[in-house]
Amino acid sequence: MTLLNRAFGWLLAGLLLAAGLVFTASLVVAALLVGVVAVAASLLRGEKPSFRMHLGRGPGRWPDRRVPRGAAPAEVVDVEAREVPDTPQRIEQPGRTPHDD
Question: What is the distance between the alpha carbons of residues 5 and 37, in angstroms, rounded to a whole number?
Fold first, then answer.
């Protein structure tokens, strides 16, 4: 009778292990399928697929920094660059001589 109980225990453990592996594999396949569908949907809309994580977003969290659709592009400002000399120039202070250091 003990041999039968031991064999039944091993059989049950094997079945539970197989069920766990099947469940885990199905979750992986479902996650991959959702990812492929999301990428395909964004490509069909003509957008670049974004792979940002959206965990922890909600009220009171960091603001969304994306530009809303239909928003005007940001204004580009041209600046004039000048070269800065390597040696710093000293500002003369009244009442001091250059060798007071």
Answer: 48
